[in-house]
Amino acid sequence: MTNREVTRLHSRANFALFITSYLPLFLLIIFKQVITNADYLYFSGITMEGIINLSSRFGISIILLVISIFGFIGFYLTIRNIEEIAENGVPVKVKNVNNKNSEAIGYMATYIIPFLFEDFTGWFESVSILFLLFIIYRIYVNSSLLLVNPILSMNFSIYEMEYEINKKQKNGMIVMRNNNLQEDSVIKIYEIGHKLFFAKNVI
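Now predict its structure.
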């Protein structure tokens, strides 16, 4: 890890990670909107009035459903590719480590739950939440929130660590499948952002 340009994930990978971080919220919004507008769930032919009604009553649900499907597929492909590439990561020795899995709970409480109390029955509310999500996305991809993902945390653990490489002490955040990382462990790290790494155990 000499001085060089920071390796970053492709924008599509960042987008996929962001979408899956909000996937629980998106599913709840879809469920809430469908239940609220259940009386309008019938097919009366393809008319302009029907299209307008569908857009106003279920527009946000349709948008969120489409991006959720593509986001989840992208998430799966991203993680699979990173795990393969991480086999060629740089070996480092862990000097100090702190488990940060609780960050996912805080993320849900701060960024997800408040949206559940919004009303999604009109265009203004739907456009507003999409605008807010865009702002959060721009912040998300340039911060350590990239690793704070409730879906990712189901199978991976997040750590803040100090490590030694070439007799130098450095620090960063990592995500890996090992849920019991200890000091003095030797792991391979693959850079995915500024001081953000995907890690694998060295066997």
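The first helix runs from residue 11 to 21.
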